[in-house]
Amino acid sequence: MSVDELIKAANQLNESDLNRFLQQVVTLRTQRKASVLSVEEAQLLAKINQAIPATLQEQYQRLRTKREEESLTSQEHSQLIELSKQIEQLSAERLEALATLAQLRQVSLSELMSQLGLAPASYV
To answer: What pTM did the predictor assign?
Structure first.
């Protein structure tokens, strides 16, 4: 199967399946690089490339939309706060892995992010 055929097939996936597919591709890439990388680097890269679970992201987006529409119940508001904490924790763990890998490779965090093709997080 060609890359173009894979892209065409991926384009037809729903959001949840696409996220699962991407996670599996990233895992495959990490495993292939693991033979060249140290165990520690491979583990850090796996943590860096770990996506926020699709169900968590979907719940969070649904509740944010309700908040913007001003139709959020107090129970949903509490749930939104809890989901925000979970996402923040995952993001903090990812950033910690990035910083550790940057130290290991003796490059700046911004240089490492550039090497890995990562853009700074956008909180807009």
So the answer is: 0.64
